[in-house]
Amino acid sequence: MFLFSISFLQRKAPSVSILHYIRCLKNLREVRLSSYAKKKETDVKDVTLYYYNRQKFFRLVGFACASQFIFWSWMAYFNLSQVKLADLVNLKRNRSQDEILDVTSKSKGSWKIVRFMEDNPALLAGIAVVMGLFFTTSGFLYSFRSINRLVLQGNNLRVVTHTPLGGTRSFTVPISDVSCGSSRTGTKAHVSLKIKGHRFFFLMDKDGDFLQPTLFDRTVGLKRF
């Protein structure tokens, strides 16, 4: 009986291996078909809603911001380098003597401001640096908040923005985290978008192309918060 069972298993082994091989082929085919279907589904879902390429313009914006920062920094350095401590002390001493000799004279408010600026050259240098930082930050922020492309990916939205060097950067957010602040058909020159987790508004220039206007109004163009 034991020998009969061994011979029976040896006869069944080839058929079992063939069935296992067929099942593996079927499973591999199903995996390939499912991956192809998912890829095709994602390709169908990726819809470009808006596109406006201004890379050359924002490259000039970045160059202008850098020029402003260099100019105002040079102004601050030039102002400090031309003033010596001994000259500043003598200037204050002479003005104090003039005020003692002419007690009845009353300087106007504008002249007081000019004298205060002359007596404090470091303040002028600080104002110059602040001006340079203000212009540079404003230009960079405008570049990072200007939209180059909007791509709808199912329930998500991929936002592509410009950079000061003429490039682009992108990030993906749920469509529920996007709120439109103005209408696409309004009188304003830009359409503003508010995105959760990001400060300030994102701007879309109306000179760009709204490739899917109806779909844009139903998805991105809604005011959610």
Automatic annotation (TrEMBL):
Sequence intervals crossing the membrane: 57-77, 122-144
A family per Pfam: TMEM70
InterPro entries, per the entry: Tmem223 (IPR026100), TMEM70/TMEM186/TMEM223 (IPR045325)
Transmembrane keyword on record: yes
One GO cellular component, as annotated: mitochondrion
Keyword set, alphabetical order: Membrane, Transmembrane, Transmembrane helix
Lineage top rank: taxon: Eukaryota
Protein name: Transmembrane protein 223
Source organism of this protein record: Pocillopora damicornis (Cauliflower coral)
